[in-house]
Every structure is written in C-alpha cells, then in structure tokens.
Amino acid sequence: MLNVWLYTQLRFHLILEPSKHIDSINYADIISQCINTIRFYNKQLTMKLVNIVLFTFITGSGFGEILVIPFNEHHNLTIDSNQLVTRQKKQAHTSKLHLVPDATVPYFSELSEHCKGLLSNFSATVSTYLKCMTFYSKPAKLCQTCQYKLTAVERAYNNIRDDNMEPICPKLLLTSDSLHMIEREYEHAQEVWQIADCDYCYDNPNVEIGKWRVSNKTKEFFDLFNRTIDCFAAFLPINRTNSTDGNPGICPNCTQEYSALDKMFLSSFQSEDKICIDIFEAMNYTRIVWSRQYKCYARVRNLAEMIPIITLILVIPFLFYPGVKITMDIYDYRQKRKEQEFDKSVSNDYGIKY
Amino acid sequence: MVDFLDDDCDDDSRPLLCGNNLTHINTNTNVHNYRERKHISTKMNQQGTDFSGTLNYLGQMSYRAVNDFKSYMNPRDYYSTVSEEFSESRESSFTMVEENPRMMEAVNGSDFLSSKYESLDYDVMENELYYERERTHGSLQHLYVSLVRWLLMLSIGCTVGLFAVGLDLAMTHMAEGKYELIKNTITRCLDYGCTCWAFLMWITIDCSLILFAATLAVYAGPAACGSGVPEIKCYLNGVKIPEVVRLKTLIVKSIGVICVVVGGLAGGREGPMIHIGSIIAAGISQGRANSVRFDILKCFPKIAKVFENFRNDKEKRDFVSAGAAAGVSAAFGAPIGGVLFSLEEGASFWNQALTWRIFFASMSSAFVVTVILSAVNDHLGAITYQGLVNFGQFPYENCHIDTWDIFTVIILGIMGGLLGALFNSLSFRLTLFRRKYLNRIRACRIIEAVVVSLISTTISFSAVYFFSDCHSLRTYEESKYAEHHPVQLFCADGEYNALATLIFTTPEESIKKLFHNPKLAYSCLHLVFFFVVYFMLTCWVFGLCVPAGLFVPALLTGATMGRSFGEGLHALFPNSEWVVPGKYAVIGSAAFLGGVSHMTLSLTVILIETTGNTSYGLLIMVTVMIAKWIGSLFQEGIYEASIKLKSIPLLSWEHPETATNLQAKDVMASPVCTFQPVEQVGKIIAVLSHTNHNGFPVVEGQGNNNTHDDHFTYGQYRGFINRSQLIILLKHKVFFKDLRAPYRPPYLPLYYFKTEYPRFPSIDSIHTTVEEDSHFIDLHPYMNRGTYTVTINASYPRIFCLFRALGLRHIVIVNENNEVVGIVTRKDLGRFRETKRCGKPKLEHLDIR
C-alpha cells in the first residue's frame, strides 16, 4: 500500500491529528475518517464512490497525506502501481483539494514532555545567542561577550542529537519536516561565529567544552586600545560639534598611544589571514577617528620635489622620437647624395646617362 | 653603421636570373602589363628569357630597390654576366622611374610582399622513395607511427604545461617581490622624505629589466619580439618566418617575457606562451635541437627511426598547431579555448582527427599545470588550481542577467569596437614610424623599449602619488581576491588607495580585482584615467622589440572600460539589482579585445573558461560580435594588420571577391626554370645558385613558342622537384658519367633527406669539380610525379582554393598538351589584395620585393 502511494501523485492532502498513541494508529479508523471528511467536502464530485483511500503517514509527525483515487468498486486494493499511474493520467478531471482538518482530528502531534523540553531549551539558547551577537555587533564586542552563549547553543543541539532517552526525539525534531528549523538555526549560529572570525581571539578554543581563553595578543591589543580610547576621551573637547575640524588637543597628546596601538596591530595582526572582528573593528574605528575625525595623520605630498623629476622624464619621448626622425632624415639625405655620386661615377665608366 | 634589419636575408642579395619569381616581381604591374611582358619574353630564346626576367625585374623595380641591389653586389661581376641588351633596358628603366615618382615613397608601406619569406611544403613529396617506404610499411608500422604520434602529443602537452608553470612561478614570485619591495620603500619614504629615491629605485629596477629583455631580443633573437601570435599564424598558414621555431627564440622569449612582466611593461605572457608552446612542439616532434647539435635520428638511430615519419612540413605543422593550443590552454586554463584559438587564429588546415589530437595535447597541458600548481600551493593531489590566469569564479548571485543587459552589452560592444579600431590605427601608424626610422638601428629599438618602460613606470608612480582613490579597508577585506595587502599611501589610516592597489600587482591580478571587487570599490573618474593611460601604454608597447603579448593588457584595458561603465551605470541607477560592475568588466574586456584582435569564437570561449561562468556566454558573444563588426568597418584585426605590415604573403580564408575573373595566365609567373628528367650537374648548380626558387618542374622536350595560344612552353610536364632534394643529391654526388652507359647510381635513401630537414645546406656549400659538372643526375626516382597542376584557363579562385585547402607551395600551370607554361606560388596569389576605398572593393596588385 505504501508502495503504491510512492508511485503516484497526491491528489488530496489531509492534515490529520492522530489519536493519542501515535505508534498504534488504527489505519482502518483513519481511512474511514478520511473518507467521511472527503465526502463531506466533496459532495460535488461526480464519482459514485470514493473507493480506495491510500494513505501514508510520516512517522509520528501527525501530518498525514491521503491519496484518493476514484475508480470502480470491483477493484482490489492491491493494484499494480504502474496501472495506477496510467489510469491516473487518463483521468484528468481528478481535482486537488486541500482539506481543512476536521475539528475532531487532533491537529498537533503531541511531543513527549522530554522532547518538548529539549526543543524549548534549544530555541531559548539560540535566541539568547543571536540577541547577544546582534546587540554587541556595534561597537564590535561580540567575540568576547557571546562565547559562552555559543557553547550553550552547541550543547543544546548536542543534547537533541545525542538523545538516548527517547530515540524518536532527535528524529522528530531534526528531520521530520522540510524546514529543518533546528538544523538551520544551529548552522546559522556557527556561521555567524565563523564569519566574524571570532575563534581568532582565543587560544585553541573548544566550543563544546566551553574553553575560551583569550589569547595574549588579544589581551595586549585591547590593553593598548583602551589606553588610546581613554586618551581620546581625556582630551576630547567639551563641545563636540566642531570635532570635524580636527582636534588640537588629541593629536599631540595621544600620538604615543595611537602609534603603539598601530604598531602592535601591524606587527602581530596585519600579516595574518584572519583577524577576529573585535580587534579588526576596534582598529578600524580608531584609525578612522584618528585620521578622518581628528585629522591627526596626514602625509604631505612633496610636489616641489616630485613634479620637476616627473616632468623631466615625461619629456624624454618628445625628445627621443623627433630626434630619431631628424637623424634618420639627415642620414637618408646624405646617403642619397652618396648614391647619386656613385651613380654618376658608374655612368661615367659605362657611358650610361640618366 | 646602419644595419638594415629587415633586409637581412641572404637570398635577396643574389641576382635573380631565371624563372618564376622574376617576372611577377615587377612593380606596378596590372594585368594588361602581362602582354608587354610576354612580348619581351617570347622574343628571345630560352637563354635570353632568363635575362629578360632580370631586365623586367630591374626595369620596374623602385629606385630604392635598385640602389639596394647595386650596393649589395659588385657591379663589375654583374655587368660581366649580362649581355648588352641589359644596358639598354636599364636605361629605359630609369626613365620609367622618373616618370613615376610615386613608387619611390612606397618603400615603407604595406603595399608590397616581401620575397624573403619562403613557404612551407605542406604537400607531401610523393616520389619513388616515398612509395617504396610505404610499400615496406605494414599496417603494424602505421599503427606504431600513429601511436608515437599520440605519445608525442602527450609529451608536447606535458612539456608545454611544465614550461608554463615554471615561467609563471618565476614571474609571479619575482613580480610580487618587486612590488612588495617598492611598496614598502615608498611607504617608508613617505614618512622619512625620500620618495624621490624610492621612485628612482623603481625606475632603475624596471628599466634595467626592460633593457636586458630588449637587448636580448634585438641581438640574440629578433624572432622573439612581440607576442608571437602573428608569426605562429603565418607559420600555420604556410609561411616560413626565419628562426621562428628555434631553440634560441624559445630561450630569448622565455627570459624576455619574465623580464617584461616583472618590469611592469604593459605586456602579457599569454601571446609568448603560445609561441613557446609552438616552439616546444616543433622541437619535440622533430626530436632535434640544432642549436645544441642534438638529433635523435643520429643519437639513437635504431629507436628513433620512427621520427623520420615526422620530418616533413605537414606533420610538423600539425604538431605546431597542437603546441599553440597547449600554450593557450596552459596560459588561460582553457583547453577548449586553446583548441579553438588554434583553429581560429592559427591553423589553416584542419580536420576532425587532428582536432581531437590537439584537444588531447591541450588537455594534458592544462592538466599538468593544474597538478603542479596544486602541489606548489600545498594541495598535492588536488586538481583545483585552474590555469595560470584564472579570472576567478563568479558567485551565483552575480550572474543575474537582466533584459536590460542586452542593451548595455550592445553599447559596450560598440565602444569596444570603436576603441579597438582607434587602437589598431594608432598602432599601425606607430609601426609605420618604427619601420621607417627606428628599426634601422638596433640600439634605437633598445632605447625605445627603455623609454617606454621609463614612461610607464613614471606614469604608474604619478598615478600612485598624485591620486588618492581612497576606500574603506572594510570593502577591501570583503572582496574575495584581496590576497595582496592594500596600499595606503596618502589615504587616511584604515583606508586604502584602490588605484594604487591596482597598479602594484601584475595585470592578471588587476583584472581579477576589476572583475570581482564589489560595487563602488573604484571611483569612476580614476578608472577612466587608468583606462586612458593603459590604453596608450598597451598601444605603445605593441610592436616594441620585447617579448610581450597583447592579450592581458587588452583585457585589462577593456576591463577598466567596462568597470568604469558599470560604476557609471551604478551611479545612474543606484537601486537596480542588475547593475553589477564586475559583470560589465568581463564584458568590457571581451569587447575591447574583440575590437582589437577581431577574434570571436576563441575569445568568447577563453573568457567563459577562465571565469568558469557559462551564463555570461551569451553576453560575451553578443558583445564580441558587435565589437568585431564595428571594428572591421574601419580596419582588420591587429594580427592581420601586423602581418600585412611585415609584407608576409598570408593567404586568408577567402580569396578576394574582385579577383574572380582572373585566370591562371594572369597570375602565373611565366619564364619557368625547368629541368630535364636526366639533367646535367652543371646546369643544376648554375640554376640553383643563380635563382632562389624552391621548386622546379621536370619536363621532357624543349620549350618553344609555337603554340597557338602565344604562350611560351617548356616541354611536357613530368614531375616536380624541390631545391632541397637537388641540394641533397648534389651533396651526396649521386652522379653518373655517361648518358648512354647502363650504369645508374643506386637510389639515395630517404633517410638522407630526412636528417637534413628542415635546414638544408645552401648551394654555396656544395662544391663540385669541373669534371663532375659534366656528369648527370637522374631525377626520376626523386621527383614527385603526382603533383597538382591546373590548366592555363583555371580561375584564380580555383587556384586559391587549391592552395588554401591543400597547403600547396607551387602549382604548375600546363596547357592542353600538358606542356608547362608557368608556375604559381603563394606570392603570386597573395599579391592580389582587396582594399576598400569608400566602401568600394578594389583589387590591388602588390609588388614583391
């Protein structure tokens, strides 16, 4: 019966709420229930009788799908699937109906309390984690704030996956629908962490155990960073509106801190492939504030030195090409003269005039 | 002292006394002139005819040519050989020159064919010896030969791949090192005020590299100059360019191209890769390298006997086209593109089995490149690195193609076509100037290359120094292709100079960045500046005597064009999803290269393969098509133009439309040097040393002019013999003394002909005694009896088709009695060229000098 269903197309979908014991569903009951429902909704159908209802039940999900194939009473239930397909093709008039669940049919499959607990644990950890990541993304502090929340997500997920108490639980929760919400959220959580390169803030992090030891480099960096920011804060003018015009107080006073930070960043992070987003953003922010907002850093172009040299070089082709042309023209002219003289001498020898 | 580089062929200096090249050499000949010419020739006996050729030749040669002629030879020798008639005619010749002063200025243009280029023999010499070998070969032998052919294809592919990877690694590492050094020095100098010295250091590095490359190219291997694509194209078409497939050229080319790329000149390595591939293919297939005196036939005579089969122009050509394809394939990681390139730009002769073999070579080369690059990049065993130039994969979301794109693509195509035409005409003018003034002195060519390098470095530096195209580092980090550290210079901390980052890399990397960096990574204005500068530089570099290709610079120029178009479009429609500047960069590069080179199929496929994106295929095709149409309204592709400028007699795919009413008698060369089947040694030596013809009809009976058709005939046609064969026969003295005696010397085995190939000794190295001069040679077993002939009334298109399809070198023109009346060579056909003036096609007759 199940086979037949697999080979044919669904005509009617019925969302069932199965009776209490999912595993011991009385198929006959459900079938008759279905037929009733279909009849109820389907009075306009021209068929005499809806004979056979084939149906399958995705294990335990509570959502059944029913195939209704109208044909003769005399047919047996176990018909050849191929026949069925061809038959269906012929009957183009079979209509598709989405049936609203009957009030009597239980709609939501009851998860066991245990499963429910796992699910709610997971959703809670994920939402805390994402909230944390979102909130601390500006200014970026997420790697150093949300690490244990990621561990919690990981653990909650592992709890579901490796659940031994009710083996049906992981199946139900993880793979029973097309959305795969838990899987999706778990992957998303990982992905965000990886895009932020947060692992690079730590020494050999282990997410599951929750071993998050901030690396020495990171510590050192934030030390310097805090010092710089403190310095900025100390010399910040009271009226912040004119800060766009540069700041006379900050530049001379904080150069030491800033360049120490810059140097440290360049020496220990610049050459690396990936930099933890906290550090990266902090550095970017400092740099932009320093050079754009306070206008402390500006290289000056030495035009007086460079322009003459460049002009001098750019003139060379304008000398070279005409020079070659003139030289060659003079050479050709001389050559021609020589040839004419040669021709004259030849013509004198042999008496040819031209 | 001035070296006339363009005239360095010895053959030119020899007085041309008899035969086919002579009569058709005359300059402003049109078809009507034929009657006059014939009148002269028919007046004389056979001996006299030879001279009449010379007279005609001299009489209508330009003034300059006459002077060259004189300066090359000792006048006394010359006059002593020529009869009195000569002086009369010579007199008249000069009056003619004075009447027609236009001819004097025609020296530098593209309006003549150079006689220094010989043709290749793509027609197999099927003589007695050949038949005998074929008879002894069983089917097993044939199987063995074709197996070896496949193995050779494999080894060609692998060697080309290895070579390409070696070059690439050397180049990339050196270039990276150089740019890193310069970048660091400049950055440090900006703080300490020594920018000037950093600049000078940059210039010194670049100029010395270019100086080295140019010196090497000019003095050691002039054939290695330029991209090499036109030369290979000519070779595959059947024109032999001196030194083009020599080991020397290979070495010069490889070292030179490394210097050029590292030296930051606007030149690519892809064109040279094609040339290098061809040279490797030629070397491997022949199993010899003359420069180092290695010949597999002599070193391992037993094992390598099979190589005898490949010692002819036809087999060699097939291998060379495979080598060219393998070169493209290795350079771009585009095996199919390589095959199609070989088909489109190179091979003039093509068949299905050959295509498959070439594809095999091409694939094996790409495979070797991939494997080695993977190993080098620590992924041993993985076959992930695609080609040397990989323009990166486009992510799926960027492949969105909107209906609007058809219009933008058309606009880009038109832009590409117009700019390509501008590029071609600029480079044409520049080349003319170079030919007229610069190329005459070797030092001048070197200095020019250095000047170009100086200017391009200076412009790069100025762009880096004066422009600040600052963007936040964050956008840089976002881009997938940010392997190189961003350059800050005058930008604020936390920002980078996008323009400088483009400049401080190899062109390939720049292309990648233009293709893939996200929107607004560049400002439109700076891109336009970069475009203009790079356009000029590319144009300037093309034609320099350094091994530098056009492919990547043109792609980069086009990518800049497309990218600036895309950024402009983005400014116009800021919210449109379909405006992806990277997409327009790809299309722009296709459009520009299409407009410049007039390549179509192979360009499209190469770009599809290098970007790994088939969904842009349609757009690229449309844009290339339009660019080509627009471009050909103005001029032909740059490769054809440069071939034409070199006066090489290339036969294109189609014969000129306006030449359909010509007939064999109008195009053929009429006094023909012929031999009798049993010929006297003295005569052969005389003819060989006084002419530079390469093929001679063997006739029986004497010539006369009593046929009703007024054509001078040379006896009944029996067969055809090549100069090289005659020289080998003379060298091995296959003579016999007495015509009537029954003794005949044994046949000279085929081996002797094959070992000398392709560089046969010159006739000057053959010495015979006076007694031997009266001996005879029996040409019967050596001549090709089954050559193609056409009758005197055959049409020009028919002869053209025969030449083009069969790769002929000579075709003998016979009359209805099978008597030889003339001969047609490639140059006789190539000198009819169609030019379009104001849209009207006009048939031009070129001189052969």
TrEMBL record, chain A:
One family name in Pfam for this protein: OSTMP1
TM helices/strands, residue ranges: 49-71, 306-328
Superkingdom, natural source: Eukaryota
Cellular component GO terms held in the UniProt record: cytosol
Entry keywords, A to Z: Membrane, Transmembrane, Transmembrane helix
Protein name: Osteopetrosis-associated transmembrane protein 1
TrEMBL record, chain B:
Pfam families according to UniProt: CBS (PF00571), Voltage_CLC (PF00654)
Principal cellular location given in the protein's record: membrane
All copies of domain CBS, residue ranges: 783-842
Subcellular location: Membrane
Transmembrane segments: 150-171, 192-220, 319-342, 354-376, 406-426, 446-467, 520-537, 544-565, 585-608, 615-634
Molecular function terms, GO-annotated: chloride channel activity
Membrane protein topology class: Multi-pass membrane protein
Protein origin, superkingdom: Eukaryota
Keywords: CBS domain, Chloride, Ion transport, Membrane, Repeat, Transmembrane, Transmembrane helix, Transport
Classification via InterPro entries: CBS_dom (IPR000644), CBS_dom_sf (IPR046342), Cl-channel/antiporter (IPR051280), Cl-channel_core (IPR014743), ClC (IPR001807)
Gene Ontology CC, one term: lysosomal membrane
SUPFAM superfamilies: CBS-domain pair (SSF54631), Clc chloride channel (SSF81340)
PROSITE patterns, per database record: CBS
PANTHER family noted in UniProt: CHLORIDE CHANNEL PROTEIN CLC FAMILY MEMBER, H(+)_CL(-) EXCHANGE TRANSPORTER 7
Family statement: Belongs to the chloride channel (TC 2.A.49) family.
Protein name: Chloride channel protein
Source organism per UniProt: Oopsacas minuta
